[in-house]
Every structure is written in C-alpha cells, then in structure tokens.
Amino acid sequence: MLYIRLLLLTQEAYFISKARIVEVLGINGWYYVSCSWCGIKLHNSAADLPCNHCLDSNACGVVSYRVELLVDDENNYATFLVLNNEMLNLTKQAAATALNDEVSRGVCNKVPPLLAALENRVFLFHVLLTANNTSTNSPPFTVLGISDTTNPADTLTDEVEGGECKLPSE
Predict the structure, then answer these.
(1) CATH number attached to the domain at 2-30+67-166
(2) Cα 13 off chain centre by
(3) Is the sign of the CA dihedral 52, 55, 57, 58 positive or negative?
(4) Which of 55, 101, 118, 157 is in the most buried spot, having the most CB atoms within 10 Å?
(5) 138, 132, 163: which is closest to 16 by C-alpha?
(6) Could you tell me the superkingdom of the organism this chain comes from (predicted)?
(7) CA–CA separation, 27 vs 48, rounded Å?
(8) Residue 47: band (very low, low, confident or very high) from pLDDT cuts 50, 70, 90
(9) Which residues, in sequence order, are CB contacts of 133 under 8 Å at separation 6+?
(10) What does the radius of gyration of the chain's CA atoms come to, in whole angstroms?
C-alpha cells in the first residue's frame, strides 16, 4: 500500500496494459543524441554537444532510442513513449547500430525495419503517467517496461486483482 500512497502524493499513476502496436510513429523521429554520462538529451551547439544537466566536460553524445508507439488495447488507442533502455531490451540492438544501418542504406529520417517489425505484435506494457507527462508535447504515457506476451519466460510477476496492481512486495 505504501507504493499506492506514494503515487497519490506525487500525482502519478502506474498500470499494466496488454496492447498491440499499431504503428511506430516516426513524425518526431525515433532517436536522439544523449549525454553519455547522465542520459539527458543534448542540444546542438556550434562544434560540440555540451551537457547542460550534468556539466561534465568529458561527456560525449550517444545515440539513444526515443520511440513513440501507437497502440491499441481493443478498447482505445493511445501513444506510448518508449525510451532507450526499454527499446534496447526489446530490439536487442543499440540505437547507434540501427541508425548506422539506416545511414548505410541511405534512408535516414524513416523508421528502421527493426522498429517497423514490431507493428501488429502484442506486448504487456508497464506504463507511468505523471503530471509532467501531461504538461509537455510528448505522449502522456511513458513505458517503464515491456514484456513479450508470446514468450512465457517474459511473463510478469505482478498480480492484478480488482483493477488494482499488487506489487510482489505487498
């Protein structure tokens, strides 16, 4: 119950959704350049990419996933934002490798086949909704984890009873 109270105090909601990926949305791109030290998005400057967050002068830019997915849970459609670690776990390929493949093929600014292959597949999404998500231009649902519903080894240990997520520690 402590987890539920903490969520109420911080105005966050956590839920699990079984949904089919309808489309990998490429309109806002599928990657970004992040700080190698803290992972925050770097903003381009003339010759270098300084990190305004951690101020580490030795940090360098790293290509990271930032993928928006249009999903369908058979009741409604929603857009989920999936960041680097979750996409890396799902695709088993680094964003830099996927980008290099796209550059080599000469088809930049398109969703790579690696990501497009996720369309029409069903996953269990662990999703967080925060007040910050609803106040920006990014999708309101941030994915914290993804489990493949076709692989029994990826099944979740969380239990859902009466619409309330029970965590294993409860």
Answers:
(1) 2.40.50.140
(2) 16
(3) negative
(4) 118
(5) 163
(6) Eukaryota
(7) 26
(8) very low
(9) 139, 140, 141, 142
(10) 18
